[in-house]
Amino acid sequence: MRKPPHHERPATAPLTSAAAPSTLFELPSTTTSRPAARRPAPVHVERTWYADIDRVTYLGSPDPSWLARPEFGEDCIPLCVSHHRLDDRRSLPRAVTPWMLDSGGFTTLSERGRWTVTPYAYAAAARRYYDEIGLMDACAIQDWMVEAKVLARTGLTVWDHQLKTVASFLNLMTLDAELPWMPVLQGFTLDEYLRCVDLYDQAGVDLTLEPVVGIGSVCRRQGTKEAVRIIETLASMGIRLHGFGFKVTGLRNGACHLLYSSDSMAWSKNAMYREPMPGCTHQSCSSCPRYARAWRNQMLNSLPEDRQLLTLTA
User: Fold this and answer.
1) What pTM was computed for the model?
2) CA–CA dist 214, 207 (Å, integer)
């Protein structure tokens, strides 16, 4: 599927608040006093077949140097790297595989209660990554999540967060429209997500023309029927969705064939509860590229084949 050039996006209008309404693996039990024995590491199996599904399943990377590792380029494994991992580096790796930039919004908002990076600084950083690293598929905007923890920290409402999220896309597009900014939908109920779609529409942004649109505040309830209903509804509107932080359970629970792309760092937490892979000398594989590749291959191989095929034709 050809991505629309970013310069062909429709012109956006200023956003106002005039229409604002009134207001693969289970973890071991930790209940015992003695630490549970760590389970064996996954076997490094190869993918049974390679197709477009591999292209849109981004592997969360804890180290920007992974972008230049030849094994990821040889297998065309796309990576997801956080802005927090890149912003203090003098030199940047040259990517050998496609990747997407995560803004690190949940960490920033849950810890600080506000964005501490200005849109100007974030746009400048994203431009540097795009030019110096190369092969950037998408860069997430500075969206405002609506999980209860984040709302309690910011002291704002879901509506406030939605307005700020749409405004972030408009601001970043104004600052550098050539970058592959990924708009994000925020909400908790289905009606709230649909309201966020309307906000973009009021600002002149047709989300069905965007290469991909992030769906926020879903990852912690991705295995629920409500989350699947939300994704089904948005996908039926012709919006190509990206699932932030989707784990095996979420992909198996009906979401796999509905998402255009997804990313996950679940492999790292999984590795903390397992033995190192054979041949690894570190105590934990939580930052190990061999383990990450093995986890991803095992995860993709475990998905029902009909859902893999649906992903290819979505």
Assistant:
1) 0.82
2) 10
The per-residue pLDDT for range 287-314, each reduced to its tens digit, is 999 999 988 888 777 776 544 433 333 3
* pLDDT tens for each residue of 132-153: 999 999 999 999 999 999 999 9
| CA–centroid distance for 32 within its chain | 34
Query: Any idea of the CA torsion for 144, 246, 194, 136, to the nearest 10 degrees?
Result: 70
- Name the E strands within the chain: 57-60, 79-82, 99-102, 136-140, 181-182, 184-185, 213-215, 241-243, 261-264
254 band by pLDDT with thresholds 50, 70 and 90? low
Rounded to a whole number of angstroms, the CA Rg of the chain reads 19
Whole-Å CA distances, 112 to 8, 106, 150, 203? 36, 10, 9, 28
Distance CA 20, CA 162 (A): 10
From 186, 153, 149, select the one nearest 167 (Cα to Cα).
Answer: 186
Among 219, 128, 210, CA closest to 169? 210
Residues 136/129, Cβ–Cβ less than 8 Å: yes
Contacts of range 126-133, beta carbons closer than 8 Å, 24 or more positions apart? 126/83, 126/101, 126/172, 126/176, 126/179, 127/176, 127/179, 128/92, 129/86, 129/92, 129/101, 130/179, 130/180, 132/92, 132/94, 133/67, 133/92, 133/93, 133/94, 133/95, 133/99
What domains are defined for the chain? 57-313 (3.20.20)
Rounded Cα distance, 314 and 312, in Å:
6
Cα atoms in the 13 Å half-sphere on the side-chain side of 300: 27
3-state secondary structure of 288: coil
Asked whether the beta carbons of 200 and 12 are under 8 A apart, the reply is no
Distance CA 296, CA 24 (A): 10
